[in-house]
Amino acid sequence: MDWRAIAAAVLVLAPSLTFSGSPFTSIHPEEAYPDPQLPAYFDPYADLISQVQRKLRERGFDTGPVDGDFNSKTQAALAQLQLSAGIPVSGQLDDATLAELGVEREQAAAGGTGEAAAGESVEPDQGPGN
After folding, report:
1. Which helix (H) or strand (E) covers residue 85, if one does?
2. Structure confidence by residue, pLDDT tens digits, 100-119
3. Angle formed at CA 28 by CA 22 and CA 32, multiple of 5 degrees
4. How far apart are CA 57 and CA 32, in angstroms?
5. CATH assignment of the domain containing 64
């Protein structure tokens, strides 16, 4: 048998081998599952952190992606802002830092948790296991 005949047979049979009519494919079976309504770990401060990350980026501080994750890069950018603005450097979202950024703490309450007391810094939970 000629190699061209074999190649033609493979091209003809390949689609029938991969599309069996099942909702699952051998390549991406996860596509059959619906997207979850909430992430596995829901952070009620994610919106507040995203706004802080946007404001820091607008001022030229690199927070990494605007994803609502209070990671070490976001914390370092926050500390640099505090240093440049003459705010005591803590790397945390205290009232003076939020005021400097023009972000209001009430936005965290929209996530379903209460507000922090006046003057108290917001230290978002770093996720399960901390």
Report:
1. helix 72-85
2. 999 998 644 454 444 444 44
3. 55
4. 37
5. 1.10.101
d(C-alpha 119, C-alpha 9), whole Å: 73
Q: For residue 32, give Cα distances in angstroms to 14, 105, 116, 121.
A: 22, 39, 41, 43
Q: Please, are residues 98 and 35 in contact by the beta-carbon 8 Å criterion? A: no
Quote the number of domains for the chain: 1
pLDDT digits (tens, 9 = 90+) for 39-76: 667 788 999 999 999 999 999 999 988 989 888 899 99
pTM of the model: 0.54
Residue 52 resides in a domain: yes
Residue with structure tokens 């296991």? 129
Whether residue 10 is contained in a domain is answered as no
Q: Which domain holds residue 85?
A: 46-109
